[in-house]
Amino acid sequence: MLVCAALMGSVGVGDAHAQILWDTPRMIGPESPGGLGLHWMRAGALPGDGDAVFATLSLPGTGRSITLRGGTGEGATGEIAGFGGIDVRSSVARHTETQPLDVEWNAGAGVSIGDYQVISVPIGLSVGRSWSSGSVWLAPYVGASVSFDYRRGEGAPDEEFAVEPSAEVGIDLAFDAARRFVLRAATSLGDRQAVVVGLAIGGG
Fold first, then answer.
1. What's the pTM?
2. Which terminal Cβ of the chain has fewer Cβ within 10 Å, N or C?
3. What CATH code is carried by the domain that includes residue 153?
4. Calpha distance 204→31 (Å, rounded)
């Protein structure tokens, strides 16, 4: 609960988006679980942004490297927004005796549909390290992404194309050695602010 409270406190007001963006937060740490994920999100691009719910699913046989995401929520103007996309990820480096961190790159493509449409292509890196003691497993991580957006529709901003950087802090936590159930929380900073808490099932 303390972690969730700290994440909520980090959300402020950034640039205006008329609907909830599909790729924020990315929820991709070097050891983040696969399987099925169920999440609640509070977007923070505008003070009026509402709640959203979304699901993630790592495609079987891909070793967590390909994940689908889709959901719905209330945008800043009260419009119901839908969003969905696909993420890919791959290891850059694993920790060693001389290098203590795990590093992954990630990329994706997806769309958000609300007052107008946003097609987003994010590219990023995440860095983290997991620890375990008995049945408790903990994996904090930080990430940085750049999203390339194409915005269209009657309510879209005058600039069709935008490049927006964002940073992310997240944590995954399990209380069983097999990691059948993993609690998840993350917050993104910058122009694409949001907070997410959720549960991953069967992806340890």
1. 0.83
2. N
3. 2.40.128
4. 9
Range of the domain at 47: 2-201
pLDDT digits (tens, 9 = 90+) for 76-103: 667 788 999 999 999 999 999 888 999 9
Type and span of the H or E element at 56:
strand 51-58
Q: Are 36 and 57 in contact (CB under 8 A)?
A: yes
Check if the beta carbon of residue 37 is closer than 8 Å to that of residue 55. Answer: yes
The DSSP secondary structure of 70-99, one letter per residue, reads: EEEEE-TTS-EEEEEEEEEEEEEE---SS-
End-to-end CA distance of the chain: 22
What is each CA distance from 31 to 24, 57, 68, 82, in whole angstroms?
18, 15, 17, 28
pLDDT of 49 reads: 60
Average pLDDT over residues 117-124: 95
Dump the DSSP string for 160-179: SEEEEEEEEEEEEEESSTT-
Number of domains in the chain: 1
Query: Could you give the C-alpha distances from 43 to 56, 112, 167, in angstroms and in order?
Result: 17, 13, 15
